[in-house]
Design goal:
- The complex is a heterodimer.
- Chain A is α+β, with helices and mostly antiparallel strands.
- Chain A has three domains: 1-21 and 96-231, ATP-grasp fold, B domain (D-amino Acid Aminotransferase, Chain A, domain 1, 2-Layer Sandwich); 22-94, Dna Ligase, domain 1 (2-Layer Sandwich); 234-394, 3-Layer(aba) Sandwich (Rossmann fold).
- Chain A has twelve helices and 20 strands.
- In chain A, the strands form five sheets. In chain A, strands 1, 8, 9, 10, 11, 12, 13 and 14 form an eight-stranded antiparallel sheet that branches.
- By secondary structure, chain B is an alpha/beta fold.
- Chain B folds into two domains: 1-123, NAD(P)-binding Rossmann-like Domain (Rossmann fold, 3-Layer(aba) Sandwich); 147-306, Succinyl-CoA synthetase domains (Rossmann fold), CATH 3.40.50.
- Chain B has nine helices and 14 strands.
- In chain B, the strands form two sheets. In chain B, strands 3-4-2-1-5-6-7 form a seven-stranded mixed sheet. Chain B has a seven-stranded mixed sheet with strand order 9-8-11-10-12-13-14, with helices on both faces.
- In chain B, a hairpin with a 2-residue loop joins strand 3 (45-46) and strand 4.
- The chains are: A alpha+beta, B alpha/beta.
- The interface between A and B is large, with 57 and 70 residues.
């Protein structure tokens, strides 16, 4: 899921016919000050980072005068909110609010349904009042009408406002579905003194599988923003660019770990998890996690292997795969052995490969010619991991 | 008993690179692949099987009753392909495609549920019943018998590759498989482990179930609930991979899209505990898995319907 920054989210809400406060981005305190002046001095300054709970983190400041906005912006820019460094703020018109509501849509966990979340009691404290949030399952085959949704608000005691809230909720639901959003949260959904309803806070995430058919959302989506807890390392960036080359077949994931001395070069999705657990259980210390598959080309395997070997402190390499359905073991072997030759490694450097499946006879020959210890289907994944840690131990590397 | 049906099988998207290979392997294995569908390619043939423009055309043009479709089309075409199959009256869909937009799967799975049509996947390498040489999908590759020989173990795996690896582990221990199902690596799938277990145990050939689980999703927890409630009655042996992911910061996906821990949900340690509390046999390694399955089958466990 890729998150969208709040101002981009609000532009999308506005395009769906929803009211939002006026806003502008600022990357300096001076700019924030002049934007606040243009709103008459009263403004809200928010750290522009793709995460919720900013109010709780002190990253949303109410400023009664433009000079206060300047101070707030200078404090926020350069600070860190959650994992995100703040390099911009959002300066918004300060609207008077009669009442704060909460509205969100998400896809239900594990069920083909949408979930509508709503509360008559929105705002920054919503996290501490989960009981105030109603969760309404929505059947995608029979979506609710504006009046169905108005009735839900009426049940929450919104009375005369319910009709307008039904319209707003319906428009938001359409946006959620039509734009392939995985999360749309409007908090607070604010009732203004004139009875209008405004989306004062917004959090939005789009399905990365759908980016190619949502070009205008894709432009502003921050890919991978829900997964990262730190920026990519240099080695991780190399793998990202390896994957970006769509002329090569196959896919690779790579996660650099802080310590460890066993280069980890494994696939598929499930087997790589099992093999990592198995190395750790045997007393080994992987230097990274990786997962590759999808019948990769020799070049792609080579490139990924070089990344794994280039991490400082790597003193051995463990290669493993489940019995492959379509990944060609000989191609994997060719890529890995060429990378091992080119990497100029210090001896001893234990390498064990457990590969079985398509073309594994030829794969064995290639591995063995390169002095890689090869084991095949007769060795379980767990036994192969044990053998790797044994080899490290014998080489004095554990 | 036929967990995967008995009628003819079609492949939607049969002229694609991957699907051609699957078609060849399926026909060689003995699966009754009777037609393929690719709009605009009617009149061609793949693996000796005729290609039609639509599912309806295929059903009209083939004498055999068709009950199963393998969907192997690009991600954005899955919803339309699935709807076409539902309209034509197909009873079972296996979606191989990876990276299907989530809203499309919400719609397709809801529509299939309303028509009581079973969906395996998406992001599944398929399912296989070795006793009838019926394989739907890439599962087993060109030599399914290398991993899957007939027997009494049902396999449920969130990982396609591990479906084969567990089959291989069992074969090397002298055991065979009733039906193996790769349920798919996504968090929104048509046949989550709980439902897969109920389906497998409806077959008297299934005496025991092996589950391969991963971090993320509530799937293993739901299976444990069904075991506690007495709905799943065959013994379950579970291997849950990814314990190490709990030591890393939350919110990173490992391997499969659904293998992501958020808050307290999705943790392998919790999945292991609830499955064990529900009477499951939770193992740490494949070697242990083979040992326990062998012991349980030797103990004379037989399914009530056998």
């Amino acid at each position: 899921m890729a998150r969208v920054l709040e101002d981009d989210a609000k532009r999308l809400l506005a395009s769906a016919g929803l009211r939002v406060p006026e806003f502008e981005r600022a990357s300096s305190a001076e700019a924030a000050c002049s934007i606040a002046s243009s709103f008459g001095g009263r403004a809200v300054v928010k750290a522009l980072v793709p995460t919720g709970r900013r109010g709780k983190a002190g990253a949303v400041r109410l400023c009664a005068a433009s000079l206060e906005a300047e101070v707030a912006a200078s404090e926020l820019i350069g600070s860190v909110v959650g994992p995100y460094p703040v390099d911009m703020v959002l300066v918004e018109e300060w609207v008077d609010i009669e009442r704060e509501l909460y509205l969100a849509f998400e896809i239900a966990r594990g069920r083909p349904e949408y979930t509508l979340l709503m509360s008559a009691d929105g705002g920054v404290e919503i996290e501490s009042r989960p009981e105030s949030v109603s969760r309404v399952p929505l059947d995608p085959i029979q979506l609710p009408s504006e009046s169905d949704l108005a009735q839900l608000w009426d049940h929450l005691g919104l009375g005369a406002l319910s009709l307008e809230l039904g319209r707003v909720t319906h428009a938001a639901l359409r946006l959620f579905i039509e734009r392939d959003l995985t999360l749309l949260e409007i908090n607070p959904l604010s009732v203004l003194p004139d009875g209008n309803v405004s989306c004062v806070g917004a959090l939005m995430a789009i399905d990365d599988n759908a980016l190619a058919r949502q070009p205008d959302v894709a432009k502003v989506a921050i890919e991978g923003s829900e997964r990262a807890w730190r920026p990519e390392t240099v080695l991780e960036e190399r793998v990202t660019s390896i994957n970006a080359d769509t002329s090569q077949r196959g896919s690779a994931r790579y996660l650099e770990l802080e310590n460890g001395n066993i280069g980890f070069l494994c696939g598929g999705g499930g087997a790589s998890l099992l093999l990592f657990d198995a190395l750790v259980a045997a007393g080994g210390s992987p230097a990274n996690y990786s997962e590759f598959g999808g019948n990769p080309t020799e070049q792609r395997v080579y490139d990924l292997t070089r990344v794994v070997l280039d991490k400082r402190g790597v003193q051995g390499l463990f290669v493993g795969h489940n019995l492959t359905n379509n990944t060609q073991v000989d191609v994997v072997a060719a890529g890995i052995t060429r990378a091992l030759q080119d990497a100029a490694l210090a001896e001893p450097f234990p390498v064990i490969a457990r590969e079985a499946g398509l073309h594994d006879k030829e794969g064995r020959r290639i591995f063995e010619e390169a002095n890689v210890t090869y084991v095949g289907e007769e060795t379980t994944l767990n036994a192969a991991a044990d053998a790797m840690v044994d080899a490290m131990r014998k080489a004095g590397l554990v | 008993m036929s967990v995967l049906g008995t009628g003819g099988v079609i492949i939607q998207g049969i002229t694609g690179r991957e699907a051609r290979m699957v078609a060849e392997h399926s026909v060689t294995y003995g699966t009754p692949l009777v037609a393929g569908v690719t709009p605009g390619k009617e009149g061609e043939s793949v693996a000796g099987v005729p290609v039609f423009n639509s599912v309806t055309d295929a059903m009209g043009g083939i004498e055999t009753e068709i009950d199963t479709s393998l969907i192997s089309v690009p991600p954005f075409a899955v919803l339309a392909a699935g709807r076409e199959a539902l309209r034509a009256g197909i009873r079972r869909l296996v979606v191989a495609t990876e990276g299907v937009p989530r809203h499309d799967m919400v719609k397709l799975l809801a529509e299939a549920r309303a028509q009581d049509v079973a969906v395996i996947g998406p992001n599944s390498v398929g399912a296989i019943t070795p006793s009838t040489c019926r394989k739907i999908g890439a599962i087993g590759g060109d030599r399914p018998e290398r991993a899957f020989v007939p027997g009494h173990v049902g396999i449920i795996s969130r990982s396609g590759g591990m479906t084969a690896e567990i089959g291989l582990t069992l074969r090397r221990a002298g055991l065979g498989v009733s039906t193996a199902i790769s349920v798919g690596g996504d968090d929104l799938i048509g046949l989550p482990p709980e439902k897969a277990a109920l389906l497998l145990q409806s077959d008297p050939c299934t005496h025991i179930i092996c589950l391969f689980g991963e971090p993320g999703t509530p799937f293993e927890e739901e299976l444990a609930q069904a075991m506690l409630a007495g709905h799943v009655t065959v013994p379950v042996v579970a291997l849950i991979a990814g314990a190490f992911t709990e030591t890393l910061p939350e919110g990173t996906a490992f391997g499969h899209a659904a293998a992501i821990i958020a808050g307290s949900s999705g943790r392998p340690s919790i999945k292991r505990r609830v499955l064990a509390d529900a009477g499951g046999h939770v193992v740490d390694t494949l070697d242990e898995l083979a040992g326990i399955v062998t012991a349980l089958l030797k103990d004379g466990y037989t399914h009530a319907g056998d």
